[in-house]
Amino acid sequence: MRRYFSSDTAKEVGLFVNGKVFRLQNEYTKRDGGTPYSRAALARLRRDLDGSAPSWMLIGGDLFGEWPQSLPSPEEDPAVLRAVKATLELYALHQQSRRHGVAQSVESARTKRMTFGRACRLIQPDPEHDDGVRRRLASAEAAPDFNGVIRSVRALILLMRGTGDGSITLDYRSLAQDLYQVQFPDSRAEVFQRWSMDYHVGSTVSQ
Question: Which InterPro entries does the UniProt entry name for this protein (predicted)?
Answer without folding.
Answer: CRISPR-assoc_prot_Cse2, Cse2_sf
